[in-house]
Model the fold of this input.
Amino acid sequence: MNRTTSIALLFLSALLSASLLAQDDNKVSDARFRTETIKESSDSKRFDIDVSYPALNDRSAMAGAFNKAAKEHAMASVTEFRTMIDEMTDEDRKFLPDGVNYTLDLGYEIEHADESLISVSFGISTYSGGAHPNHWTSTLNFDRKEMKELRLGDLFKSNSGYLNKISEIAIEDLTKQMGNFADEDWISRGAGPDEANFESWAISKKGLLFFFDPYEVGPYAAGGFEVVIPFEKFPLEMQSSKFYTAKTASYVQGNPPNWCRNGHFPSQDVEFSLVRVNGDRSSRAYFFGDDDDCPNGEECRMKAYVIGGDELLVARSYGDFVCAWYQPEKGNETVGWIKLEDVRAATGPEETASWTGEWIFGENDLKIENIGVGALSIKGNAFWKGTGDNIHIGEVDDQGTPNGRVMSIGGTDEYDCRVKMTRVGKYLIVSDNKNCGGVNVSFDGVYVRR
Done:
């Protein structure tokens, strides 16, 4: 194989990889969007353009404004590439290996979309000669209500020092990602507190997502980097009203991500598990509340605490905390955030195999009995007490078969009662669809055997 052929194959491999990187995220699973494309090629000028960008399907004024902004975003790269092609001479094209063209590949990913905001990242790759293609990311964050592009500075109050906060976290994260290959000066230049360093940003479920392209914080060979800064890292005094709108991307089942409450705990769509508090019986692990900027705020620590060896039922984590439910032998539960450093995974066999028995949570009850061949009968009552003698009642009477440690019962109609039960340790975690009785009646709760 001669040298020219080897170079051509090397270029083709690099270009194919770049194209796959740019186009891999063009699949739209959200029915609200469609994909628009721009494809051009020329044998004489030796170029290929393959561009995809999103468009909303509805015909509202807002959709028209977004579609226009998304197209303009894509066309900016197309126009720049076409200008470069027009400036190329036949002499320039002689340096292209056989089978290799100048290329522009542009794809996109919907990072987040809700009734308020649409956040899109565009992956762009071009080859204009040289040793390798070039890759970079651009973003479009669109305010649906104001029908215009949202800028990073719009999320924060003036003179709040948000760039310093972003820079500090990004530099620490990038340094950790690169390990021994981190170049302190290079990272400081590319992620310093300059707005130009953070032009490529998006809104994600986990927080603000920042993109750093090859050469920005390290050499080309290091590739690009992404840094996610959780919304909770930004204090309330730094946030504008637009920040609140962006933060709703992280909401869990419609609730703020920092909520950890007994009313929401059983319905969390997570893998529940058991932990124990670290230390001996003289050790304390305090609960933290979920108001405002809690659990991270200075005034978030509650008076309630657990001690070393106590067993907790935990759901999802949030930063350095985990949402925990403590059920004492007598009395009511305590629910709140517990520091992850204060607990460890519980060891020993779990009592998840047995479902039968009489289970209670407050005044609610469930009776589960075997009816043969793995099937179970589930009967129970739930109550809601208002003022005076105002009492609403709900009941369940059904059959089910456990699937591992989860069992679901109920009808398939929209208004049928449906109940999900999960066995973890000595607990039966129950949540329903709020169609199992009168107004405000719910079976939701963490049950123990009577």
